[in-house]
């Protein structure tokens, strides 16, 4: 017989397997797109938890968004691979990601959704450009 705990664990394992399979088969472009989506989802969760007053869950969601930006998006920037022409772009993106992290920290400290809105808007500007590059490459 299945207990509720084993059902949740089994469903969670199945979901993780699906995510791992998607990640392993994704192109580098798709991986970055997934990072943008993950950050947006974490910011949306933070906004929800902020609205309902769940401070620990809000902080966890913001920490997840910060981790995605710092350890995913920002860490994937490579000034050497960009070459001299792309070095300025890498520098600009690095500053933008630092700005996003700063806004997420302010949102967490001040419990203010306007900072989440700003962080989300900054990320969406880059994410939409990134998605359009993928559409152009696939056309």
From TrEMBL:
It comes from the Bacteria. It is found in: Cytoplasm, Cytosol. It holds the Pfam family FliS. Its main location: cytoplasm. Keywords: Bacterial flagellum biogenesis, Cell projection, Chaperone, Cilium, Cytoplasm, Flagellum. InterPro entries: FliS (IPR003713), FliS_sf (IPR036584). Belongs to the FliS family. This is Flagellar secretion chaperone FliS. It comes from Variovorax ginsengisoli.
């Amino acid at each position: 017989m299945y207990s509720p705990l084993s059902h949740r664990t089994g469903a969670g394992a199945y979901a993780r397997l699906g995510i791992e399979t998607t990640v392993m088969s994704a192109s580098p472009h798709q991986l970055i797109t997934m990072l943008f989506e993950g950050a947006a989802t974490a910011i949306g969760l933070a906004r929800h938890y902020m609205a309902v007053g769940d401070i620990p869950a809000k902080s966890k969601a913001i920490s997840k968004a910060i981790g995605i930006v710092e350890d995913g998006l920002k860490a994937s920037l490579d000034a050497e691979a960009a070459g001299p022409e792309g070095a300025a772009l890498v520098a600009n993106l690095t500053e933008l990601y630092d700005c996003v992290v700063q806004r997420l920290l302010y949102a967490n400290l001040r419990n203010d959704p306007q900072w989440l809105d700003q962080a989300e808007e900054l990320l969406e500007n880059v994410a939409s450009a990134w998605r359009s590059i993928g559409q152009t490459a696939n056309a």
